[in-house]
Write a structure and sequence with these properties.
281 residues, mainly beta, Porin
Length: 281
């Protein structure tokens, strides 16, 4: 017994592995690979991988024909950007600004309308009917007509403009107008949606209107005026189609626009608090 124990300790000290019987009795799992005892440390693959040929590359990357742009599906959208109430010096007021379109990816018909009413009287209202064509990614050229409706005589305009999404996600509309009697006008509008959270959105907006009327033979200049409107609205998105908001708007009028009797508030503008809802479908 003592001799057998000594032999076992010697085998352990020499690092001897399991006996042949134990090795034969130990099961081999499918993931194990038995190498022959005399296998070298490195061995070349029995089937060498052939080099990649031009035929292999052509088969891996075939020529693909571009998918044609059908532009046959008709889509539409109507967005009420602003539908708001306000408190004015003459009484409660209501303002709106809406845009809609129908068409395909390249050609569309556009509708724009905006205006305001104060103390139950219509102040200034207008409607555009435009044809738009995509000329670049995110940009459309539009041409059509604009009709102004006021307490005084209405005014018709020929409208030509550019609209789209500028770098850094600014939505821009730039439109030039030619009206009756040699009147010309221009409008530039830019807005931006700043996401405070996924539901809380802060929207700054700037709108500049320029107008030049008939050339005056006496003074040598055309009469006209312009106004600048800036706004800041904070809306909460209940769902994507419905978002109430509150905000503040400043209006500054210059030139004839400051004393135009067709405007309800015969002043050079001012600030007001607004509250409304933004919706689309």
């Amino acid at each position: 017994m003592t001799r057998a124990l000594c032999v076992f300790l010697v085998l352990v000290a020499l690092g001897a592995g399991p006996t042949g019987v134990e090795a034969q009795s130990r099961p081999v799992t499918p993931h194990q690979h038995q190498e022959p005892a005399d296998a070298p440390a490195t061995e070349e693959p029995r089937t060498p991988i052939p080099p990649v040929t031009d035929a292999d590359l052509a088969a891996a990357f075939p020529e693909v024909d571009p998918h044609p742009m059908r532009d046959q599906v008709i889509n539409s959208l109507f967005l009420v950007e602003q539908l708001e109430g306000m408190d004015t010096p003459t009484g409660p007021g209501l303002g709106w600004d809406a845009t809609g379109w129908i068409g395909g990816d390249v050609n569309r018909a556009w509708l724009r309308t905006e205006g305001e009413a104060e103390d139950g009287r219509l102040g200034a209202a207008e409607a555009h009917l435009l044809y738009g064509r995509a000329v670049a990614r995110w940009w459309d050229v539009v041409v059509g007509g604009r009709q102004d409706v006021r307490p005084g005589p209405s005014q018709s305009w020929l409208a030509v403009g550019l609209q789209g999404l500028a770098p850094y996600w600014f939505e821009v509309e730039a439109t030039a107008y030619v009206g009756d009697g040699g009147r010309t006008a221009a409008r530039l509008e830019a807005e931006y949606d700043l996401l405070i959270t996924n539901r809380l959105v802060l929207q700054p907006l700037v709108e500049v209107n320029l107008e030049r009327r008939r050339f005056d033979q006496v003074t040598g200049f055309g009469t006209g005026g312009h106004d600048v409107e800036t706004g800041l609205r904070l809306r909460y998105v209940i769902r994507r189609e419905l978002a109430p908001y509150v905000g503040v708007v400043w209006t500054n009028r210059f030139g004839d626009a400051a004393v135009d009797v067709s405007l309800l508030d015969d002043t050079r503008g001012g600030g007001r608090i607004v509250a409304g809802v933004r919706l689309w479908y």
